[in-house]
Design goal:
Elements lengths: L2 H21 L3 E5 L8 E4 L1 H7 L3 H4 L14 H13 L3 E8 L5 E13 L4 E10 L1 H21 L4 H13 L7 E7 L5 E5 L5 H7 L10 H8 L3 E3 L12 H7 L3 E8 L5 E9 L7 H32 L9 H12 L5 E8 L2 H8 L1 H17 L6 E5 L4 E6 L6 H12 L3 E3 L2 E3 L3 E8 L6 H16 L5 E4 L6 H19 L2 E10 L5 E12 L3 E3 L1 H10 L3 H21 L6 E6 L1 H4 L4 H12 L6 E6 L2 H4 L1 H14 L2 E7 L5 H5 L6 E4 L1 H4 L5 H16 L3 E4 L5 H9 L4 E2 L8 E2 H4 L3
Parallel strand pairs: 16-17, 19-21, 21-22, 22-23, 23-24, 24-25, 25-26
Antiparallel strand pairs: 1-2, 1-5, 3-4, 4-5, 6-7, 6-10, 8-9, 9-10, 11-13, 11-16, 12-13, 14-15, 18-19, 18-26, 18-27, 19-20
Helix pairs in contact: 5-6, 5-10, 6-10, 12-13, 16-17, 18-20
Length: 724
């Protein structure tokens, strides 16, 4: 079939779909799966009305323009795969209207085939299911609240969960609050995690008034109060500067009633833009408020029961009986975490000198700080004995060292006893919760044993209980714990391993390798501390530290008028895709006065399956600024050939696992193919891990010209590399 005939057939099909769209009131779009990025070829009027976009803004674009912060990327990927393979399916995803409002969209993917024309399209039926999702969410939220009450969870935790659930159905940046009113007719903050701390401090204890805020007005009027535009509403007169500071442009508030139709507080939503509610929005808010009322009523009843049985009257903290009972229940969830005992060396002295009440006050203050420290992640704090506080947290173990450091930091501030501010020496004993260790009594015993070891040390100390079963996990915890301090103290050093010309053995460049010698743990392999940095959220900081050392080394060579050679730096996928990666790199090269051409970024080929489109954009930015790029560990997995031609890189590195197995016929064939592929694409092929003359000879015979490995040079400190 001639090209003009294909085009004519497409026009006929699109015209048929257009007529169908007039009759078909369900929203739908038609995409062309044979064109890269699957552009929308047609959308009916119902789709424009549902999304708020015009035909000019839709046709020819990929459906990803409807995505936003709340959109699940995995579902988006599944929809694209179904489109590309013409597989029918039904998907539910959060999309965004043109005005920024998120909505739940049910997308039915249905292939349209025209065999006689050798053409195909994908029909995507679109249905706004937000009402159904809201109804389902309300039912689930009610169940979660009941369960939380039964387990004795703190009211603030229950209310915050309600707020966060409600926020997911409104504009990005929307923030929900629950303000309760006490007997003195003053606001008490039930939940306001999304709001700035200044807001929480300002609202706590504020007298309720009808002419000061929508929340006060909603409480006293006992009806919803909507301020669509704070700049135009008389209710907000005189508060514009404060509202601008918090980024608030609209406020909706509904009253919260108890069972006697008395108002006990308000549920409010604060928006970053002028915003008008629909009738369904207000009904949803009122239903949320009724769940808040349920949580407040039954939680207070439960709290009173628990207070009588499980509260240490002298400090106001939960007692050891409560801690043991709750710990047994929480462990049933099977989550990892840790149990810790915390004690201040000065407790006995304070009790002896200032009286038993002073000791109770000290425990109360330490307990308060523990509750606030380390973020809002679920944790349990109790007074286990006169001088010991107990803590249980479900934080992932890879983050435990950082979490415990936050706790210690909160306890370093002085404590006021009498007329004195006293600094405490805090000791912590930790028992980790693992699949092999889920026994509450045993965890308590282990944490107590670890605390005893901590008390034997001078000054502030954290000790972990160790056993053979947890040896590997404890090693990772010790590494993660020491890594945070190591980065602060700049213990991570950089070694350079030269890249050489295989024929002449001349040095062509270097690869920067991170090395760590810990004062406490000795030499730690990169195979251990780099994965620990990735798990602990420290990999960007580690790689930025390496970049700074390399640039400093290059700057010194410039100042000494020594020959400059390109240095390759390994970059993780997390760092590569971070929005600050390229700007930070550019700023650092300017700061040190080093031309970007002397820096090469080595990226593992795994980035090809993370987000090929974004990866291509980042590589283009690096190329624009003059940085060189390389694909590391090439050929070890994933679809290398399918994406390599899309990425503007200059070099691919043959993984050492291939070089070390070159005696195998199949491996030699792979290496030869990679070298030929690189040559065909105009790229350099660099072999890693060359250790013998036989390796060198075989690689030269296959056409490889550049390599690195122990045969030529081992990694060396920066000062030693200056001599080359």
């Amino acid at each position: 079939m001639h090209q003009y005939e294909i085009q004519e057939d497409r026009k006929v099909i699109i015209d048929w779909l257009r007529r169908l769209g007039i009759e078909f009131h369900t929203s739908f779009v038609v995409v062309n799966p044979d064109i890269p990025d699957h552009p929308i070829a047609y959308a009916n009027q119902a789709f424009f009305e549902m999304t708020g976009y015009s035909e000019e803004e839709v046709i020819g674009r990929n459906g990803k323009f409807l995505h936003g912060i709340k959109t699940d990327t995995n579902t988006g990927t599944r929809i694209r795969e179904a489109t590309a393979t013409a597989q029918p399916g039904i998907f539910e995803i959060v999309n965004y209207r043109k005005d920024g409002t998120p909505f739940w969209n049910e997308i039915t993917v249905q292939p349209l085939a025209f065999p006689e024309k050798s053409l195909r399209y994908i029909l995507m039926l679109q249905r706004d299911i937000s009402d159904r999702r809201r109804a389902e969410t309300l039912i689930e939220l009610q169940k979660e609240t009941y369960k939380g009450i039964e387990k004795g969870h703190m009211l603030g935790m229950l209310l915050q969960n309600i707020c966060e659930t409600a926020e997911s159905f409104f504009l990005d940046g929307s923030r929900c609050t629950v303000l309760l009113v006490d007997e003195a007719k003053r606001f008490q903050v039930g939940a306001a995690k999304s709001m700035p701390e200044e807001f929480t401090l300002g609202m706590r204890g504020l007298e309720v008034a009808a002419d000061v805020s929508p929340c006060g007005a909603a409480y006293l009027r006992q009806q919803p109060v909507v301020v669509e535009d704070v700049a135009q509403d008389a209710l907000m007169d005189g508060q514009q500067d404060l509202l601008d500071q918090f980024g608030i442009k609209a406020i909706w508030s509904v009253p919260i009633f108890n069972g006697q139709e008395e108002t006990i507080g308000t549920f409010g939503i604060y928006f970053p833009s002028v915003y008008k509610p629909s009738e369904k929005d207000l009904v949803f808010m009122e239903e949320i408020a009724s769940i808040v009322s349920l949580a407040v009523k039954f939680s207070r009843q439960q709290e009173e029961i628990l207070r009588l049985a499980y509260i240490d009257e002298e400090s106001g903290l939960p007692n050891r009986h409560y801690f043991r009972t709750e710990l047994e229940e929480l462990l049933k969830d099977g989550k990892e975490g840790f149990v810790a005992f915390i004690s201040a060396d000065e407790f006995i002295k304070i009790s002896d000198q200032y009286g038993h009440k002073a000791g109770n006050d000290l425990c109360r203050e330490l307990g308060r700080r523990l509750v606030l420290a380390g973020g809002t992640r679920e944790k349990l704090v109790a007074r286990f004995s006169d001088s010991r506080l107990s803590l249980y947290s479900t934080i992932p173990l890879t983050r435990a060292p950082e979490f415990l450091e936050d706790i210690l930091s909160s306890l370093r501030e002085p404590v006021s006893i009498g007329e004195m501010d006293l600094f405490l020496t805090v000791k912590v004993g930790v028992a980790i919760v693992t699949p092999a260790q889920q026994n509450a009594e045993e965890l308590v015993r282990c944490a107590d044993s670890a605390l005893s070891k901590a008390k034997e040390r001078v000054g502030e100390a954290i000790c972990y209980f160790e056993n053979e079963q947890d040896e590997v996990m404890m090693r990772d915890l010790r590494v993660a714990n020491a890594l945070t301090a190591a980065l602060k103290r700049k213990e991570i050093s950089v070694f350079l391993q030269p890249k050489v010309a295989l024929e002449s053995r001349d040095i062509l460049g270097f690869e920067a390798l991170a090395r760590w010698k810990s004062p406490e743990l000795g030499d730690i392999s990169p195979a251990i501390f780099i994965p620990a940095a990735e798990k602990n959220g420290k990999i960007r900081q580690l790689e930025q530290h390496v970049i700074e050392q390399v640039l400093s080394w290059l700057k010194k060579r410039q100042e000494r008028e020594l020959e400059l050679r390109q240095v390759a730096i390994n970059i993780s996928a997390e760092h590569f895709f971070h929005h600050s990666f390229v700007p930070h790199l550019v700023d650092e090269t300017k700061k040190y006065g080093v031309d970007p051409k002397w820096i090469q970024l080595e990226i593992t080929e795994r980035i090809g399956v993370v987000d090929i489109d974004t990866a291509g954009t980042v590589f283009e930015q690096l190329k624009k600024y003059g940085f060189a790029t390389s694909i590391d560990d090439f050929g070890t997995g994933y679809s290398s050939l399918s994406y390599l031609q899309k990425l503007p890189v200059e070099e691919i590195k043959i993984d050492r696992s291939f070089v070390s197995n070159m005696d195998e016929h199949g491996t030699r064939a792979v290496i030869r193919t990679i070298i030929q592929l690189a040559d065909n694409l105009g790229l350099r092929a660099v072999a890693e891990g060359v250790e013998t003359e036989d390796d060198r000879t075989q690689l030269l015979g296959m056409g490889c010209t550049i390599a690195q490995g122990f045969l030529f040079h081992r990694p060396m400190p920066l000062d030693e590399a200056h001599l080359l």
